[in-house]
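protein under study:
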Amino acid sequence: RAVLRKASALEYKIQRRALRKEDFINYIQYEVNLLELIKKRRAHTGYSFKKDEIEHSILHRVHSLFNRATGKWKDDVQLWLSHVAFCKQWNAKHQLSKVFSTMLAIHSNKPALWIMAAKWEMETRLSSESARHLFLRALRFHPECPKLYQEYFRMELMHAEKQRKEKKEFEQAKMDLGEFNYSEEILNGEMARIVYRDASQKIKGVEFQLAVLSIAKLFDFTQDLQKEILESLQARYADDPLTWDYMARRELELGSLQPTENTTKQKKVSEMAQNEERCCAVFDEAVRAVPTEDMWKCYITFCLERYNRKTNSKELKQKRLERTLSVFSKAHESSLLSEVLYKQWLQLLLDSNLSEKAVEVAEAATKNFGQSVETWQMRLQVLIQLKSDDVTQCFEEAIKHVKSKGTLPLWTLWVEWSEGTNSKEDTEALYQRSLHATTPAESVTMKKMYLDWTYRNCGYKKVKGLFTSLCENRPFSLDFFMKMIQIEKEQESCKMLHLREYYERALREFGSTNTDLWLDYINEELSHPQGKPENCGSIHWRAMKMLQGDLVEDFVSKYTLLQTGHL
């Protein structure tokens, strides 16, 4: 009865004139949950009769609901994918074929859906012919889609591998195949070769060639095909850093393919070192042939990857470090080192305790990227870490080179360093200077930091005077006012008169956009020993007048919760 009642209620909702997608989704979800429950009950009780009357009728109803929903909201891909997932879960192959057919007719502009349908045909229905047909149809709509070509190429190789296995099994069983015979061209992946040649004419770029090559490597009968792709790669993209990067890394793979039986640890380490030397020889040739920033980046990335690999051999680790630092230096001498790589170089030098070299590199980085705040920040952090005497001079130099907009990180770093190093007078002068040097939007952060530092170092009286003077110049942040309110609350004789002043100042700036500020003010009047609960009515009235749009509703609901003690 409960199931009937619920199903009837859901059915009524989808029979309305104004249909809602959520009603269909809720109905489908209910039916799917019911199916899962029946499945569990059957497993628990061992009762397997009347499946046609129970499960099949529910399955039929779910499919019809999905068909109505996808017919009404054709553009909702997620709805289609939910139907596909349901069909897969309940093994409705015939229905799924129809779903894919209808979905692809509507969403032919989405390559991922074509690939999904073709994969299902290939892997579940074991129909390579249907999968091929779908890929060819997809390529008519998307003739230059790399992903489609990659998956089509993979499918043809999978088909060839499947046929090779079948042939091998027939030969082992010594069965007479009669007139049926396997084409040697298909067995050797000739179809995949045709796909590759067609794709490489339409799709330019090394990334596609490398992706196809990585797919071909997964199959052990594609040596000739791999060779053709590799030759094409070298002939057509000889000036591309990615080609050289692949060719260099290939030396490692070729080295690891050699048989390594009965080898000692020492021998393995020497072989690894030799393989890496061969890679670096290719990279050295690459940076001579293609002297670009991207090429050096590939070389350095490779060296860093090898250096970060775990090894028990100290000798190999040291050799990797020396090689990496050498490559960084060469790239720097060629003036082809990016800002990010300078940062990595510095980090490596600091980790290796090469502090003098780190200072030199940081200085060189700021010469090459004088406008970059991050580079100056990096150099300053190195000097601070090494407790250098040139920190102040470097800060002055940084502020001179970098435009005023965006200097906040430098000022923040400078005052934080000064707090721990310089006298109170110097730090205060620096805070005052930072307020004038930064843009108005950035000075907001400095004001809050200044307030906090003054309270920690100079006490309540000084911070109260500073707050009053800082309030003369806009803009402000809400944190600035909240910090002062927090400082007042921390005093033994916390005066409501002062809190009222700070809240009023904050509300002048943020009263139209912040509901919590009003609620905190009301709460303060109610809970503070010197508070006046009779003021709450007027504060509430002002809040209703001042708040904008939906914030009024938000305020009313929160105020109600406050009154009932739930906030």
